[in-house]
Amino acid sequence: MTDTSNLLLAVRGLKVAYRTRDRVIEAVRGVDIDVRRGEVVALVGESGSGKSTIAHAIMGMLPPAASITAGTVTFDGEDLTRLSERAYRRLRGQRLGWVPQDPMVALNPSHRVGRQVAEPLLIHRLASKAEAKTRAIEALGRVGLGQPEIRAEQFPHELSGGMRQRALIAGALICGPALIVADEPTTALDVTVQKRILDDIGALAASSGTAVLIITHDLAVAADRADRIVVLRHGTVMEEGDARDVLRNPQDAYTRLLLASAPSLSSGRRRHATSHPAAGAVRPLPDPRPPLVAVENVTKDFAVSDAGGHRGTFRAVDGVSLAIAPGETLGLVGESGSGKSTLARIVLGLVQPTSGEAKFEGRALAGLSAAEERERRRQVQPVYQNPFSSLNPRLTVAEIVGEPLAGFRLGDREWRRRRTLELLDQVGLPHAFAERLPAELSGGQRQRVAIARALAPEPALVVCDEPVSALDVSIQAQVLDLLAELQHRHGLAYLFISHDLAVVRQVSDRVGVMKDGRIVELDTADEVFRAPKHPYTRLLLDSIPGRRLAEAS
User: Fold this and answer.
1) Range of the domain at 169
2) What is the mean pLDDT of residues 118-145?
3) CB contact burial 33-71 (16+ within 10 A = b; e otherwise)
4) How far apart, in whole angstroms, are the C-alpha atoms of residue 285 and residue 345?
5) Which of 228-232, 273-277, 281-285, 409-413 has the highest mean pLDDT?
6) Domain-embedded: residue 397
7) What distance, in Å, lies between the first and last C-alpha atoms of the chain?
8) CA distance 58 to 74
9) Among 107, 134, 486, 548, which has the highest number of CB atoms less than 10 A from its own CB?
10) pTM
11) pLDDT band (50, 70, 90) for residue 275
12) pLDDT of residue 277
């Protein structure tokens, strides 16, 4: 461990257990962690390693089924494990800043964003209502939200996932806490915003002595931003030390596995060994066949209201044309609000364009018969960004994965059961998970269930909206390999939306870059990453984390 000079947080021998109906599960098994004033410490590990449990134990927010069974959590000389809930409330928001993983759960859907960002100032009586409102707008601008005055008056559902996460970060920073505990704070963020946020948190730590404990599965973020890295597995610390030492000379086999699995811009295209004669070669488009899906000069406008209640329109997609060939992967990158997800929903047939046309196998979606539309829906399946909201909480994993099979009347009950278990194997989940509910799974495990569900009816195109952003690097590598294998075996096409450009390079034949609803660059993946033509593409590439990771490899 580190020396005790200037020590702010000291976790000693921490053990946390969860009680279920028939057993006790020890999630954290005697963990020691030190965080000094002004220091950035990254707690790295895969889903189920105990990272978030440790974060919740520090913040005094463990669920009712969990309890600290041993150890201490000392913050600024005070043992937090002995505090009452009332005493904890005096610390949260003011001295202890909290950035949770899921903004849809953390933000109140019935309150405006600005009010929620300002709330810590009002609770701790650090500002008047008028001053708190002004500081909330400033905080939203500080974390990279354009038009913060308008964003402050909007409700959470009116913001994109990345925008909601930035609002949470603004709320955590607004009181200038001594320690920020950030549970996957940049998972949903674009690389430019991620860089801005991490720069801001780093500057705050350097200038005011604020310490940061980042909980992350993203080794690139840990490598670039942390002074020290703590590697966790199965509730146990496997390795801990200076970030550069851990990256350059990992002592534990598990740390070496994480480093080997981490994507980087130097990684080549993931392909099945026999899919192409030249590794990394761009798949030639099959000229005789029409595109599987195409959008032609598509525009989509949404009605919006400003702070004064005046109604207008917002153009989310502006004159976009692109096509995806059978068996091709088109990567789509861009910041939150660039129109990526809206375009994906148009391709899925969930949103009708204001103008222009979307086609499937050469036929306009608007002209399909009921039977043709049903077949198109089977052929085009989605994997959404947020596994917390995309899965029915009342269904078991087996029911969720098997639901499309029953819905499209594929096979009999026994065949559907076997197919469901086979899909769980493919996405790396044990058969025992089949009877679990989503609430009993980690975020990464839920996303694997969502991917299995999308693959169930054997589609021709899978629209992947940030499909691996919630996954650990080793599972991420397995899923990307799986997608590549399935593409080779079945000729699948993918529309792959991601803010992780390292992942996009690994999976894409071509890459489209979106900004303000428009495609500003569209070329082969090699060309976009080797010789980007648009200034915005160059900005995205310059913002990618992981340079220290690349230097260490």
Assistant:
1) 104-175
2) 93
3) bbbbbbbbbbbbbbbbbbbbbbbbbbbbebeeebebeeb
4) 24
5) 228-232
6) yes
7) 25
8) 9
9) 107
10) 0.71
11) very low
12) 32
